[in-house]
Design goal:
alpha/beta; Rossmann fold; binds S-adenosylmethionine
Length: 186
Amino acid sequence: MRARRESYPARSIYKLQEIDKRVRLFKKGDNVLDLGAAPGSWTLYASKLVGPAGRVVAVDRAELTIGAPANVTYINADALAVEPDELIALINADGFHSVISDMAPRTSGQKFVDQTRSYNLFCRALELSVALCRHGGNFVGKIFQGEDFEKARDLVREAYVKTRIIRPTSVRSESYETYIVGLSRR
Ligand SMILES: C[S@@+](CC[C@H](N)C(=O)[O-])C[C@H]1O[C@@H](n2cnc3c(N)ncnc32)[C@H](O)[C@@H]1O
C-alpha cells in the first residue's frame, strides 16, 4: 500500500495532500489544530510542513498510531466536548493558522443518520475554528453530502472570505464525503 510505503498510516493522506496542493494551507511556523486526527496521517503531513517552529495539536477519541513528532501535541478527547481554552493553552499564540477536520462518524449504513452525524461533527469543527482561528487563517472540514450541505457551506461563507468545495480524486467513487474549505478568516 502506497501510504504505508511512504510511512503514513492511512490513505486519507492523499486527500489532504490534494487539498493542500490546490489551496496551500500550511507554512513553516504555523499552528494547526487537527480534529479527528487518528491514526495520524494528516497530523504527520502538517507537522512536516509547519516544521520545528510550528505546532500541530491533534485531537481524537482514538489513539494516534504514529510516533508523534516533537512538534505534535496529542489530546485524547471528544471534539464535541473539549473546551476551546484547553486547546489554545497548548500553543504559544492567540490563535491557530489552520483548523482541519477529517472527523467522521462510525457509519450505521443508514444514509440520513450518517449524514446528520457528519453534519454535527462538521458544525462542531467549524465552531472551534471560528473560536480559535486567527484572522486570515484557514478551515478544512469533512462532510458527508446530504440535505444540510448548503447550510454548512453558507456557515463557512459567513466566517471566511473565500469558500471552496473540494472532493479529492482519492475519495472513493461510491463515497459521498467531500470537504468544505474556508480561506482567510474574517
Ligand atoms: C477518517 S478518520 C481520520 C483520519 C486522519 N485524518 C488521518 O489522516 O489519519 C476519522 C476520525 O474521526 C474521529 N472522530 C469521530 N468523531 C469524533 C469526535 N466526536 N471527537 C474526536 N474524534 C472523532 C474518529 O475517531 C476517527 O479517528
